Every structure is written in C-alpha cells, then in structure tokens.
Amino acid sequence: MSHYTSPSTAYRFLLFELTSQMDEREAKSVLSIFFEDIFDISNPYKVDAWPNKGEADHCEQLGNRLISLEPIQYITGQTNFYGYDFKVNKHVLIPRSETEELVHLILSDNTGKHKQLDVLDIGSGSGCIAITLKLKRPQWRVFAIEEDLDALNVGRINSRRLNAQIHFLRTNFIDESYWESLSKYDMIVSNPPYIGNDEIDKMSASTIKHEPHKALFVDGADALLFYRSIARFGLTHLKEAGRIFVELNEFKAKEIQSIFMNAGYKDVIIHPDLQGKERMLTANL
What we know:
Blueprint: H1 7-19, H2 24-39, H3 55-67, H4 72-76, E1 78-81, E2 84-87, H5 97-109, E3 118-122, H6 128-136, E4 141-146, H7 149-161, E5 166-170, E6 185-190, H8 205-210, H9 213-216, H10 225-237, E7 238-247, H11 253-262, E8 266-272, E9 278-284
Parallel strand pairs: 3-4, 3-6, 4-5, 6-7
Antiparallel strand pairs: 1-2, 7-9, 8-9
Helix pairs in contact: 1-2, 1-3, 5-6
C-alpha cells in the first residue's frame, strides 16, 4: 500500500521519516509549507482524499526529495526574504536570516530617503541583497556581480518579478583583470563564499548535499580569499567616504577584521547578529 494514498497518510509518513533526521518542530514546519504551498492544503493530517487525480504521485515524487533532505525552498521554488518572495533553485544559495540582518544594517545606516548612491553587490546569487536594497531605496543605482551564469539568470528573473532595476554583470571577481572595467561606488556589499575545508563538519548535511558549493566554499587553502580581494578592490573602487558591508564567517571574524584594518580602512567594526554571533562587518575608506 502506498504511503501517499491521501494527504493524511502522506503527512504521517513524511513526518515519521523527517523526524528521524531533524527536530520534530522543524519537520512539522517544513511539512506545513510543503502541503500548503504546493497542494493548497492547510491541515493535511485531517484530509483523507486528494482533491485532484494524480496528486498522490506528485506528492510521492516531491516527498522523496524531502526525505533526501533537499531544502523545502528548492522544492517549492521560492523563499521569503525581507518580506519579498524570491525564486530559488539549486544554482543559488537559499537566503538566510543573517543576510536579512546585513540588509537591515545597511538600510539603518543609510536612512536618507533621497540620497543617491551607487552600490555594488559582489556575488549576488538570487539577487536578494541587491534587489531588496533597490526596492527599499529606489533612488540608489545598484550593480550586482555574479560569475555563475545560472545563478545570474535567477537574479535577473527575480529583478523582473519584483520590478527592481538592477545592473547585472557576469564577472569572475577574483580575477583582478576585470576590475578596471568596473566603476567607483559609494558602497560595496557582499555575502561571499567563506567556508574552508576545515569547517565542512560544521555544515548541515542538507546544505552540503544540495546547495551550490561554489557559493559556499572557497577553492584552495585560503578560506578568506574573497575578503582579501574585496579589501583590495575597495581601495581603488570606493568613492571618497565609501563604505563596505560584508557578512562574516563567524569563526574567523577577528581575522577578517584584521584584513581590512591592515589594508588601511577606518572604523572597521564587527557587528553581532540577533544570536550574538559575529556575523557582519563594516569598514570605511
């Protein structure tokens, strides 16, 4: 007998499978999104028949992806970030709450509604940072760099869906020969790859298995490569009194702070997130 003959049997089966791999509250939260967003069923454990033919098979296909710990955001194809719905898929990282806090820090630091700024987002992925900044500060000119073409296309789709005009650039930021083609900016923002091979054991199995490694892990021995490049880049590509905002590897926050201080930046400050972790840094030219 199939485990998916009705929403109620599917729910009970999937809850059993997921609670063997995660906390029960998290499993229930994932299943709530799964049934409501995909099948428009808010109380699956009370529904004993599928409303439409073929939905049992559809639930089984997607349920197998859930059991493999594929993130629910990839299965539904979207996630909420700062109150906006963004398309996501396997080519982009799923935006985290820490990145929302980075955006909040930027907006709180730049409250002038009419001040025009040129902003560069390095490693834009889904475009969540660049697009949210543009939506909240329409007068800003926002540029977004992304090396991966598939990820860049996701960002472009999101900018069209949310009606935010972003200037997307496909560039390998680490290759400094591209830098001379870039302009000067009032603000440089980034949530760069920052996980080294020595930290893989700190990552969840779901993240390692399903999210794009290129956006998470740094090739080679130097896990702080992108921070070093951003610090050098800012010296020649920030306007006078320009600022840098980056998300941090919490385990290497002090090392990253030293990179910017040694490069000559002023007021290099580490900011804690809501959990008290050292997750953001600001630096002034």
